[in-house]
C-alpha cells in the first residue's frame, strides 16, 4: 500500500526548507510547541489520485483552477507536516457513494497505527450498515469523524444516519463537517440542514469546515447557539478564498468572541498555495492578538482532544 515515487522535486526543496523555517517561526514566536491541524487529508492512493485528478480538471464541485501544492508521496507528505512542526493532524477521508466508508475506515485505522501523530479518523455514509461500522470504528479508537455533505450529496438528517449521529454524540467525538455551500453549493449544503440536525442532537461536537464559507454569518449564529459547535479556519482569509468567497468584515468582531472555539485547519495537501499562507492569513488579521492565535493554532484543539497539551 505504498505510494509510487513522486516526480522529481529537486527544484522545490530549497523553497520547502525556507517555508519550513518561516512556518516554525510563527508558532515558536507565540511560545507554542507546534501546531494542531484538524483538517488534513490522507487517504488510499487510488482515492487520492482521483481527488487530485478532479481538482486538476476543475470539476464542477471545484469550479475553478486548483493546483495541488504538495503533490508528494504519502511518506513525504507526513514528513512535511512534521517538519512544519504539526504535532497532531487528521486523515480526513470521505465517501461519495455507498459501500465505501467501511473500507476507508479500515485504511484510516491502519494509517493511524503506523502514524501515531495522526488523530485516528473515520467517516460514514447514509446506508444500512453505517451504524455497525461507526460503532466498530469507535471501538477501534477513532478520535474524529469526517462528513462531507457536498461531495457525498446526502442530507445529514437522512434517517439512515439517526443511529450514527446518536452514537457519535454519546461518544463525545468531534466531526469535521463540510456543510457550507463553498466552493459550489450542493443540494443539502447550507445552515438549515445543520440547524435541524443540532435540534435533534444538541450535544454533537461539530467542527464546521471552512467556517461554513460562504455562509459565514449563519454558521457563526449556529456556533453561538450551540456551545459544542466549533469552526475551522481551512482556507478562510487566504487570497485564494477571498477572490470568490470573501469573509464579511461585518462579522470580524465574532472572531474574537468565538476565539476559544476556532481551530486551525489547512486542507493539506490539497491546497493551491503554501502552508505558510494558511498560517499567515490568520496572523495578519487586524485586531487579533497572540492569545487568540495560540488558541487557534494549538490550545483549542488540545483541549478538545484531551491530553494533547501534555
Protein model, in words:
Keywords: Hydrolase. Helix 1 (13-29) runs parallel beside helix 12, helix 4 (101-114) runs parallel beside helix 5 and helix 5 packs parallel to helix 7 (162-171). The protein starts with 12 loop residues before the first helix and ends in a 6-residue tail after the last helix. The model is unreliable at 1-14 (pLDDT under 50). The chain has a single domain (42-307), classed as TIM Barrel, CATH 3.20.20.140. With 310 residues, it is an alpha/beta fold. The chain is 43% helix and 10% strand. The protein has a six-stranded parallel β-sheet with strand order 4-5-6-7-8-9.
What's this, in brief?
The chain is an alpha/beta fold and 310 residues long. It has a single domain (42-307), classed as Metal-dependent hydrolases (TIM Barrel). The chain is built from 13 helices and 9 strands.
Provide tags for this entry.
310 residues; alpha/beta; TIM Barrel; six-stranded parallel β-sheet; three-stranded parallel β-sheet; 9 strands; disordered N terminus; hydrolase activity; Amidohydro-rel; ACMSD; Metal_Hydrolase; Amidohydrolase
Order of helices and strands: HEHHEHEEHEHHEHEHEHHEHH
Strand arrangement within the widest β-sheet reads 4-5-6-7-8-9
Structural class: alpha/beta
Query: How much is the radius of gyration in Å?
Result: 18 Å
CATH homologous superfamily descriptor = Metal-dependent hydrolases
Provide the CATH architecture: Alpha-Beta Barrel
Number of helices: 13
Biggest sheet, open or closed, and with what strands and sense?
6 strands, parallel
Number of domains: 1
| Beta-strand residue fraction | 5-15%
Query: What is the helix content?
Result: 40-55%
Number of strands: 9
Distance between the termini: 33 Å
Amino acid at each position: 500500500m505504498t505510494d509510487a515515487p513522486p516526480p522529481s522535486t529537486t527544484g522545490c526543496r530549497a523553497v520547502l526548507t525556507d517555508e519550513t523555517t518561516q512556518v516554525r517561526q510563527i508558532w515558536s514566536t507565540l511560545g507554542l510547541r507546534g501546531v494542531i491541524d484538524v483538517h488534513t487529508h490522507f487517504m488510499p492512493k487510488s482515492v487520492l489520485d482521483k481527488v487530485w485528478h478532479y481538482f486538476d480538471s476543475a470539476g464542477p464541485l471545484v469550479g475553478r483552477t486548483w493546483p495541488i501544492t504538495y503533490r508528494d508521496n504519502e511518506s513525504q507528505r507526513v514528513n512535511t507536516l512534521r517538519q512544519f512542526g504539526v504535532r497532531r493532524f487528521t486523515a480526513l477521508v470521505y465517501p461519495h457513494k455507498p459501500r465505501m466508508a467501511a473500507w476507508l475506515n479500515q485504511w484510516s485505522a491502519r494509517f493511524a497505527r503506523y502514524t501515531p501523530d495522526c488523530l485516528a479518523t473515520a467517516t460514514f455514509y447514509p446506508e444500512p450498515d453505517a451504524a455497525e461500522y461507526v460503532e466498530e470504528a469507535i471501538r477501534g479508537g477513532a478520535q474524529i469523524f469526517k462528513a462531507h455533505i457536498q461531495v457525498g450529496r446526502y442530507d445529514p438528517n437522512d434517517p439512515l444516519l439517526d443511529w450514527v449521529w446518536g452514537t457519535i454524540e454519546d461518544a463525545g467525538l468531534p466531526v469535521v463537517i463540510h456543510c457550507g455551500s463553498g466552493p459550489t453549493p450542493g443540494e443539502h449544503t447550507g445552515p438549515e440542514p445543520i440547524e435541524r440536525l443540532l435540534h435533534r442532537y444538541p450535544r454533537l461536537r461539530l467542527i464546521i469546515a471552512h467556517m461554513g464559507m460562504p455562509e459565514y454569518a449563519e454558521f457563526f449564529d449556529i456556533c453561538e447557539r450551540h456551545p459544542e459547535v466549533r469552526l475551522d479556519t481551512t482556507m478562510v482569509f487566504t487570497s485564494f478564498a477571498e477572490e470568490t468567497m470573501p469573509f464579511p468584515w461585518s462579522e470580524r468582531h465574532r472572531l474574537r468572541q468565538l476565539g476559544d472555539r476556532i481551530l486551525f485547519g489547512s486542507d493539506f495537501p490539497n491546497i493551491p498555495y503554501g502552508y505558510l499562507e494558511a498560517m499567515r492569513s490568520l496572523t495578519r488579521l487586524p485586531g487579533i492578538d497572540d492569545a487568540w492565535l495560540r488558541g487557534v493554532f494549538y490550545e483549542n484543539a488540545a483541549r478538545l482532544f484531551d491530553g494533547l497539551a501534555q
